[in-house]
Design a protein that fits this description.
Order of helices and strands: HEEHHHHEEEEEEEEEEEEH
Helix content: 55-70%
Distance between the termini: 100 Å
Number of domains: 3
Number of strands: 14
Structural class: alpha+beta
Number of helices: 6
């Protein structure tokens, strides 16, 4: 060993000795006696051991203090977050309840409007029949007046001819002696008497015909006045019906557009699906005796076409998920569509008691009814227009694959199966396989259903 190394070793030894002396002064050696029935032993606790024990104890206490502080802060933060979440949830539930009440009110108004429309449509049919009957009667009166006028003209012509012949015979009788004698005079007298009677009958017939013609003209004028009043009533009813149809169809059109569904192609698709089946979707038309439709008939046909469109919208609404899968009075909203905890949440969650009824939100066909990994018990329903709905974490499934279901039908019970933190329904809407926010459809229908 070199002198340098020896010096360094000596310095370290002196430092250890001084440290040991300092520790012995602060922490003198202690002995821990362990006594049994047969013998007594002791454990020597040197300064170094005591120092390690104190350091370990201090570390444990420090860790406990820090951990407790962290837990307290997390608890306080979580409490504030929960209070805020509860307040937001209460506001959201209140808003949903208001929307539900508004939806029920709009549904009642729609039913009342439909009843008024059906009543008005019946009145239109009766008035249309009466209008056609009056039109036929007017035409018959016009033809009768023309016949009476022709008969009157012919009678007046015959009267003028008879009068001319009578004047000729009278002139012959009053001649200068060149007129016929005897039997000729008698024949002329008989002829004059016949012509006088004929003229009298013709005059009487003329007066009767003139009276009938005037009566016919008066009746025609009365019928024309009644027709004008009837046309005014028809125009008023048509205006009301047109306004009612506009009010009825416009909210449905806005509902589908708000949900992102193209109304033109949607209506065509529904019409193609029901082509050839008759019923309310059969094209309707009103004509007048097989001729060119009148203005009123054209307006009635326009209203009937709008009614057909409204029926198509109604059928389409049954096939799109505009309804709620749960009764809002039995559940509370816990999570919406969007990012959550660093991950994307593709649906809407409602928490509630286990066993709460889950209902289909539109007509469709069940394509899955069973267990599916994190979804737990899952139901998938395929609807029209490329739309699919999913109902997850169920406690019980009440439908089978391939079964056709209707909107509002009970399909399952709310539960806590799969990857779930509590009893709730996870509800998804997918269009063309892509998830969309379910509330888009629910909010779009709030002013209609």
């Amino acid at each position: 060993m070199s002198r340098r190394e020896w010096g360094l070793h000596l310095l370290l030894t002196q430092l250890r000795h001084r440290l040991h002396v300092a520790l012995e002064h602060k922490m003198p050696e202690k002995r821990l006696f362990l006594r049994t029935d047969t013998e007594t032993r002791f454990v020597r606790l040197g300064p170094g051991t005591q120092l390690l024990a104190w350091a370990g104890s201090a570390a444990v206490v420090s860790w406990a203090i820090i951990a407790t502080a962290i837990l307290l802060m997390d608890s306080i933060g979580a409490g504030n977050f929960r209070e805020q979440a509860k307040r937001e949830q209460a506001v959201y539930e209140e808003r949903l309840n208001v929307l539900s009440d508004q939806r029920d009110a709009r549904a009642a108004e729609a039913v009342a409007a439909q009843e008024r429309f059906n009543s008005a449509l019946g009145q239109i049919s009766l008035m249309q029949a009466e209008l056609l009957h009056n039109e036929d009667r007017r035409r018959e009166l016009e033809r009768g007046i023309e016949v009476v006028q022709a008969t009157l003209r012919r009678t007046m012509g015959e009267r003028e001819e008879a009068r001319a012949e009578a004047e000729t015979l009278s002139a012959a009788l009053a001649g200068d002696g060149t007129s016929p004698q005897g039997t000729a005079n008698e024949e002329v007298a008989r002829t004059l008497a016949f012509l006088s009677d004929a003229l009298s009958d013709t005059a009487q017939q003329r007066d009767t015909t003139a009276t009938d013609a005037q009566a016919a003209l008066d009746y025609a004028a009365e019928m024309e006045s009644e027709l004008k009043l009837l046309e005014a009533r028809n125009d008023q009813i048509f205006r009301r019906l047109e306004e009612a149809m506009t009010i009825s169809v416009a909210p449905l059109d806005r509902m589908f557009r708000a949900a992102g569904l193209p109304t033109e192609s949607l209506i065509q698709q529904v019409r193609r699906g029901y082509a050839g089946q008759g019923g309310p979707l059969t094209p309707l038309a009103l004509t007048t005796s097989g001729g060119v439709p009148s203005a009123d008939a054209a307006r009635a046909n326009s209203i009937l076409n709008k009614l057909d469109t409204m029926n198509l919208y109604r059928i389409a609404a049954q096939k799109a998920p505009f309804a709620l899968p749960v009764n809002l009075s039995q559940v509370r909203s816990t999570s919406g569509f969007g990012p959550r905890w660093g991950r994307m949440h593709y649906g809407q969650d409602w928490a509630g008691p286990v066993g709460t009824d889950i209902k289909a939100t539109a007509d469709g066909v069940v394509i899955h009814a069973g267990w599916s990994s994190g979804y737990g018990r899952l139901i998938k329903i395929q609807h029209e227009f490329g739309i699919e709905t999913r109902y997850a974490h169920l406690s019980k499934i009440r439908v089978n694959v391939g079964q056709r279901v209707s909107r509002g039908q009970h399909i399952g019970d709310l539960g806590n199966s799969g990857r779930s933190t509590g009893p709730h329904l996870h509800y998804e809407v997918r269009v063309g396989g892509k998830p969309v926010n379910p509330l888009i459809y629910i909010r779009a229908a709030q002013d209609v259903f």
